[in-house]
Amino acid sequence: MSNFWSIWITVLTLIVIAGCFFILRKMSQNNTGIKEGESMGHSFDGIEELNNPLPKWWSYMFYITIVFGLIYLAMYPGLGNYKGLFGWTSSNQSVRSMEESKAAVDSAKAENRLSQYDREVAHADEKYGPIFAAYLATPLEELVKNEEALKVGGRLFLQNCAQCHGSDARGSKGFPNLTDKAWLYGGELADIKTSLMNGRNGMMPPKGGLPIEDSELEGLAEYVVKLSGGEHDATLAAQGQGSFMKGCFACHGMDGTGNKFMGAPNLTDNAWLYGGSRGAIVESIKYGRAGVMPAWKDILGEEKVHVITAYVYSLSNK
Questions:
Q1: Does 278 reside within a domain?
Q2: Same domain for 205 and 288?
Q3: Can you give the CATH number for the domain in which 232 is found?
Q4: Residues 291-307 pLDDT 10s
Q5: Are 130 and 275 in the same domain?
Q6: What are the DSSP calls for 122-188, one per residue?
Q7: Is the pLDDT score of 99 beyond 80?
Q8: Does residue 20 have a known ligand-binding role?
Q9: Any binding-site annotation on 252?
């Protein structure tokens, strides 16, 4: 924060607190010339206003709040760039990457000035570390049968994965549904864990990087509809098959069943990541698609990824 904004926030905050104090003092004094308890000369609907001061307990509560606010602002950050007497921080606000975060934590440990977040993480690791270590030592084939582990995996999923895949894991446009059997990179336990650990970068270039003309897109989309078992125009689909054979098969296979090693979707099922309408298919072919899932090994660690893997697998394998 610049010095200007730091000073602005500090001065404005103190003015507001001082204003509250003086208004309270003013309202606690009788400057009306009318004795306490007597009529103010105002009445409405049979209700007469009397000159009564604020209740003492109410005034004292306001004074205590003002004093508490000043003490709090002196001890903790809140006035611009002022760090507070305790030097407390909620988290490492300046970091922009995992590497910077780790460096900031290591530096704070060396200087014994961990932020509250770092302290809470350290406490949680100390308390729950042995539990996750035991889960990691358990083969995934056994872990998927552990109901308690699946509950833990479900909570981790909600905290870290639901933002993209939804709280019900059914995904949305551009984010895979994890409850069906349509897996771009394979749905076995090892495949899922690899995806979570290392992340995925799926990319189809516009028109697959092939010499396909715009005039061919409608027929190509019709052929894709045919592959997925939808009602189609046979003549138009036959034309689209010729376009498909220009090179689409290199990723999606001659039969259109995809390639999990490349993340190329299976075009013969009815699972569509970006929509299965003819318009959506044409858009995908014409402009291409790019999807990224981050690697979680450095964010959560293998122990937690191991548990999430078991949970995700259980979603499509009841």
A1: yes
A2: yes
A3: 1.10.760.10
A4: 999 999 988 999 999 99
A5: no
A6: HHHHHHHHHHHHHHHTS-HHHHTT-HHHHHHHHHHHHHHTHHHH-TTS--BTTB--SSSS--SS--S
A7: no
A8: no
A9: yes
The 10s digit of each residue's pLDDT in 26-78 is: 888 777 778 877 888 788 888 888 888 788 898 999 999 999 999 999 998 88
Question: Is pLDDT above 70 for 159?
Answer: yes
Beta-carbon count within 10 A of 212 CB = 19
Same-domain status, 263 and 248: yes
- Reported as half-sphere exposure (CB side, CA atoms, 13 A), residue 46 has a value of 0
**Does 61 belong to an annotated binding site?**
no
CA angle 305-310-315, nearest 5°? 120
Segment (H or E) for 131 = helix 116-136
The verdict on whether residue 203 carries a ligand-binding annotation is no
Cα–Cα distance measured from residue 220 to residue 212, given in angstroms and rounded to the nearest whole number: 9
Q: Does 283 lie in the same domain as 205?
A: yes
Structure-token match 């552990």, residue found: 146
- Containing domain of residue 265, as a range? 200-293
Question: Residue 243 — pLDDT band, cuts 50, 70, 90?
Answer: very high
Q: Is 293 annotated as a binding residue?
A: yes
Three-class SS of residue 143?
A: helix
Q: What is the pTM of this model?
A: 0.70
